[in-house]
Design brief:
alpha+beta; three-stranded antiparallel β-sheet; elongated; 116 residues; 24% helix; 22% strand; 2 helices
């Protein structure tokens, strides 16, 4: 793409934790937006959702190499990640319990009540 409205350094953009995007004011009144996932994928074009203007974001792609691939996990702290790991372990236990009750036979299936 050759026609950029402007070239802006990532340091001049603001991080919006709620929308999980960097943003920069657009002359139309809205704002240009680009996500960390896009930056990680070497995309350097921030778009405005309200008009056709685009800007080129100047940044070091190496700064975003280690970013989590899922946008929802980007704002998670180490403590929240540990909680998620605990939740995963309890899910594994439920899975193991279900496997204990699994039977494969030619008989008609029986309903088994399992506590949630």
């Amino acid at each position: 793409m050759g026609a950029y409205y402007d070239e802006v350094e990532i340091e001049d953009m603001a991080w919006d934790g709620e929308k999980r995007v960097y943003h920069y004011p657009c002359p139309c009144g809205d704002r240009f937006e680009i996500s960390k996932k896009q930056l990680k994928n070497y995309e350097d074009i921030a778009t405005c959702p309200s008009c056709s203007l685009v800007i080129r974001v100047i940044y070091d792609p190496l700064d975003f190499e280690d970013e989590p691939s899922d946008d929802e996990d980007e704002g998670a702290s180490a403590e929240e990640e540990e909680e998620d790991d605990d939740d995963d372990e309890s899910g594994d236990e439920e899975f193991q319990d279900a496997m204990e009750h699994l039977t494969i036979a030619d008989e008609q299936p029986k309903a088994i009540a399992v506590a949630a």
